[in-house]
Design goal:
Two copies of one chain form a homodimer. With 682 residues, chain A is α/β, with parallel strands linked by helices. Chain A contains 24 helices and 19 strands. The radius of gyration of chain A is 27 Å and the shape is globular.
Chain lengths: 682, 682
């Protein structure tokens, strides 16, 4: 029996149905599940049959093989971590066969064929692809298909045909505001590959740090990085690590603004007088490169040439955002230059600068990308515009003939829920009015991890798992929009991502332990499980680069999985008369835990500088637990609560929906569902 | 006011007193705590004043400085992780001054002066030492002194004088039965330094794998390792990483037995006929080197010379354990050779072999160490004997003039509680009869992590935190023996060790998530929290090298912190009439959780091959929770339970004290305390 899955039918998949439907993310274009399972045990092996190997088959690839061979190596290492199985060093069986014919192996390139097919039967699995990258995506799908069944690890018999909706599916990581060591970059590349993202946009310089080693201009990193930068060898290592995972690396050197860290070592590049110091605060700084002096272009030509040689991808990001023009307006030299060229405003000056940079980039075989501020009247036509201020600029750029990618709505530092990002589609809103030819210029999008509020310890938990939802938006058919289905799968994929190497889940308990000092952190964990951290611009303040990120808000996750589970139960209880006994018991147990928790909190928080701010939150949680218990009683007995109590609770619930200590008490949501139902029944 | 802490007074320190007494482990020889605190904030800096720097002071050491300078670097990195504080790249203050005069910087050496003093006042901290290693130990103490107080992170004003009781304080890691990647080795070196262990004994070869690259004899690793071995560059890297942390590295190449992996590539070294295959099962194999052929010694001379050059420490371990003699007895050549030399038995032949090896080692400037089987009549006098079969051999060796180290009682793979290891003292038992001069030959001890039952994922949780208790036994004065104090401090130190880099705590949840398949693991976590894994020879079976270590027993910890907490409460309840309300509430809450847990377990374990074996355990836990609740009722009301119920519970509790699915239901212990009290009151 073959059950063809309609994609939209996933909406109806409840968590309980887990065994039948694998939690794939992104969802493939077509998936047909059959009866039968393929066992994954210690005999498992991979055989690659690639056309560019002159037809020679070989078993599990040896070290230093080609890219697909190396992909099989990390696939097997990942499979071993995910299952705990030790695979035989020389595979006993060719369980999974990869037929990559004709197999391009030139590295991931924009617009290449990333499609693949994957067929699994009880006797084996077959991947078909015409590029190494297609095959790499199929391997990622295979890992998500693995389930723990009655006989061990297994993959359901399935036929999958898949290809991405957008060619540009990226993650931008800002390593300037807080430096991210190379192992952080690598583990995030592993996680990107797990959800088929294919562009790593590396924001390597900004006011707060210049993170790339230049041999031509060593004062850039010597004076601009506090010693925290990547050597050229490390950058090459990241590029090859990414390429092996089907990921292009786009470096960004933001200019002419956001260049304070450049100017510490090279003040002569500045439009205004120095000396300069590395930025320690956040926001937009005035210092900017001088567009009027040829020496600046000479410097940039040499520098871009040096960097272009490290990054093989033909796209190069020049930033171009947030030039406030203050220094240019105050500089007699820049003003004289503007007058000479007839430039009326800052944008015209910046467009001239961009045109000069574009010529340099062309010389080194690179296409220019920039943030949407670069969209001026005379922007060269092969520029790619990255829209961050809104979807309007993306549509405007496409209408004017420019290619574009969307990041507005994908800013991870804002701390919004996965559902919010999931609802943002590059081709909706103003883009929906474009002609088909214009719409084709919209290449995809990028999730953006600005690092004012994250460091190496916390960055994974701010990128993942939410970025998996963005990855699905950019890969899967546009009809895949069901939020409940997304969350069910996201939770499973989130756990798998730990085996890919990111620490978004495992970093949680040690951070709570640190907050608890030398006490046991359990009451703190109960509070943190019930809380959600706010993001920049949505309740969270950014201070400066050396402000410790060791507070409760840093340990708390952005979305509480356990509260989401309680919301589902609360909705069922609200909808049923009488409510299910199991559901009532689950809610009672959780509310009781909350109600009792604050009694344990003061001993934990006593004399603890970092927990002072969450003492009121702990009280609120316990009050909420007590209120929840009372509401359950009322719903069960059918007896209403007194009016004054209801009025008071209405105010309390409204108050608790506002952030405190820069976190939200997520626990209020299931209680509010029950309270609203109680109000309705009155 | 100065409170001089009597060391034995620590016995009286309850967990609640945490703020006053820092959780140091190992406990120093002398500690005086005063009023006042030193703040640890972003201005914190270290200044090294070392005599071998010609009196030149310099602030926080630059990269590539000497060993003490590099130690300060990793100290600051560790401090940043532990506190979440970003320290200024160029320190603003010399908060911590290190005076190392005269400062030996030749690397850690056996018997060097490891003493240090540490003085902390509200205005600064001073370390005094005469070797870099003394100063490195002081830095480890400083990290454990840090507490989270009302104004942030702080260190109490303190005067510490400290020195080790034993000069040899080691951890042996077997990387043969399961290979441990270099990052696993490094993070364990970091953790060793945190508790002042100073010897890393690297068991590099055994029947199941030859893990060191030989350039002279490449078939050793090519045929004997399944591709899992350390390159020479990696071994040098480990040595320098260890040396920077005050740790000597002793390589072990076990011979003439335990050499199956050598013989795969070089069958001509064997006393019996080949061909040979890498060992996949465990236990003692018969194949052994041929002691009768000069070619074997020629090979070993070249090989040992090659390895000796990689490992600068003057000690070299040749194993020598478990030679069963079967092949030698069957070999006409070996028997003829034995007859020629007048060797009466296997031991005599092995002693000859050892004498030959010792000559080779001397040639390369190395002293020989071996397991206690090497203790034969003509053993060269400068040999060090490592006692593993019992404390008798250690005393016997010392009485015969040999130096020795103790490992009997420190076998981590046996899965015994920290208290067991803590109770083993190298100078008690038969060693107590030695003369002072003989006793001096007992250099210390080593914890041994044999790897039949651990892999890279689980090894940290089998080494830590228990090894910290062994580290205290080997460092601290012999009077420090209070188990309750040890456990209070061990729990705090265990959490700190995560910031040193080991993953003994953070690996727990991902392993439970894997076991839960795509379901939520919470009921499984409650069961695992209540369970304790058994070790080899104490309820756990070892199968073979490719048996997955992904079962419940692998995820469960060896000692349950939460159950230990419940035992303390249960003891208080048993001792008080009436029992404290808070204590009763805590026990009730936990027992209720257990009682309710099994209802949630079948949906989780359904169709799950790995959870089938723990279904009965889950039922037992819930029954135990229900029994615990009933016992609490009886204790509270003073009404006895019926005789038949008591008789049944007696049987049940006896049954639950036996392992099931290779784990113990630790939860039985607090319930048994209460049940015994109820029986007494009857």
């Amino acid at each position: 029996m073959i059950r063809t899955l309609l994609l939209t039918a996933l909406a109806a998949v409840a968590p309980a149905a887990h065994a039948a439907i694998p939690a794939l993310m992104p969802m493939p274009v077509k998936m047909e599940i059959s009866d039968g399972k393929l066992a994954v045990d210690e005999t498992f092996g991979v055989n690659v049959k690639a056309a560019n190997r002159l037809g020679v088959d070989h078993p599990t690839a040896p070290p230093e093989a080609d890219r697909l061979g190396r992909a099989v190596e990390w696939f097997l290492a990942r499979l071993a971590r995910q299952t705990g199985i030790f695979f035989a060093p020389v595979a006993k069986a060719a369980t999974l066969q990869i037929g990559c014919v004709p197999c391009s192996d030139t590295g991931p390139t924009l617009g290449e064929d990333e499609s693949y097919s994957l067929d699994v039967s009880p006797t084996g699995a077959w991947i078909g692809a015409s590029t190494a990258d297609g095959a790499i995506h199929a391997l990622a799908t295979f890992l998500q298909l693995i389930q723990l069944g009655p006989d061990g690890f297994q993959v359901p018999a399935v036929h999958i045909e898949d290809r991405p909706r957008f060619a540009w599916r990226g993650l931008m990581m800002d390593v300037s505001r807080h430096f991210m060591p190379i192992e952080v970059v690598k583990r995030n590349l592993d996680a990107m590959a797990a959800v088929k993202l294919n562009v790593f946009h590396w924001h390597l310089s900004d006011d707060q740090g210049f993170r790339a080693e230049s041999k031509l201009f060593p004062r850039l990193q010597q004076f601009g990085s506090d010693g925290l930068f990547y050597t050229q060898q490390q950058m090459r290592e990241v590029v090859s690590y990414a390429v092996d995972r089907g990921i292009r690396v786009i470096p960004e050197f933001d200019m002419p603004g956001h260049t304070l860290s450049w100017l510490v070592g090279y003040p002569e590049l500045a439009a205004g007088p120095g000396p300069f110091e590395i930025g320690r605060r956040f926001g937009v700084f005035d210092p900017v490169l001088d567009p009027s002096r040829e020496e600046v272009y000479t410097f940039l030509d040499a520098f871009i040439g040096e960097m272009a040689a490290l990054f093989p991808d033909p796209y190069f990001h020049i930033g171009g955002d947030e030039v406030n023009g203050k220094v240019w307006n105050l500089s007699p030299a820049v003003q004289a230059f503007a007058k000479r060229h007839g430039f009326k405003d800052t944008l015209a000056i910046q467009t001239y600068f961009n045109q000069r940079i574009q010529k340099i980039l062309h010389k080194y075989g690179k296409n220019m990308i920039g943030w949407d501020e670069i969209l001026g009247p005379d922007l060269p036509p092969d520029t790619v515009v990255q829209s961050w201020r809104g979807q309007d600029s993306l549509a405007a750029a496409a209408a004017q003939g420019y290619r574009g990618i969307l990041s507005a709505g994908y800013y991870l530092d804002h701390g919004r829920p996965a559902a919010y990002h999931y609802g943002i589609d590059p081709l909706t809103g103003p883009a929906a009015q474009l002609t088909p030819e214009q719409a084709k210029r919209i290449l995809g999008g990028e999730a953006c991890m600005w690092s004012e509020l994250v460091d190496a310890e916390t960055v994974d938990s701010r990128i993942w798992p939410r970025t998996a939802a963005i990855a699905e938006r950019l890969w899967s058919p546009k009809e895949i929009t069901d939020v409940d289905s997304m969350y069910v799968r996201l939770e499973v994929v989130s756990r798998l991502l730990e085996f890919a190497g990111v620490t978004h889940r495992s970093s949680y308990q040690p951070m709570l332990d640190r907050l608890a000092g030398d006490r046991r952190a359990e009451p703190l964990r109960i509070l943190a499980d019930a809380s959600e951290a706010r993001g920049l611009g949505t309740g969270r303040r950014a201070h400066q680069t050396d402000t410790p990120l060791n507070r409760f808000v840093d340990a708390a996750r952005l979305e509480s999985e356990s509260v989401r589970g309680l919301e589902l139960i609360a909705r069922r209880v609200a909808a049923s008369r009488p409510p299910g006994a199991g559901d009532m018991a689950s809610l009672r147990a959780q509310f009781s835990l909350w109600a009792a928790n604050d009694a344990r909190f003061p001993p934990l928080a006593e004399d603890n500088a970092l927990l002072v701010e969450v003492k009121p939150l702990s009280k609120d949680l316990s009050a909420l637990g007590a209120a929840g218990l009372r509401i359950l009683d009322c719903l069960e007995t059918g007896k209403p609560a007194p009016d004054d109590w209801m009025a008071n609770e209405t105010r309390e619930i409204a108050r608790l929906q506002r952030p405190s200590a820069e976190v939200l008490l997520a626990a209020v949501r299931p209680v509010k569902i029950l309270f609203d139902e109680l109000s309705r029944r009155k």
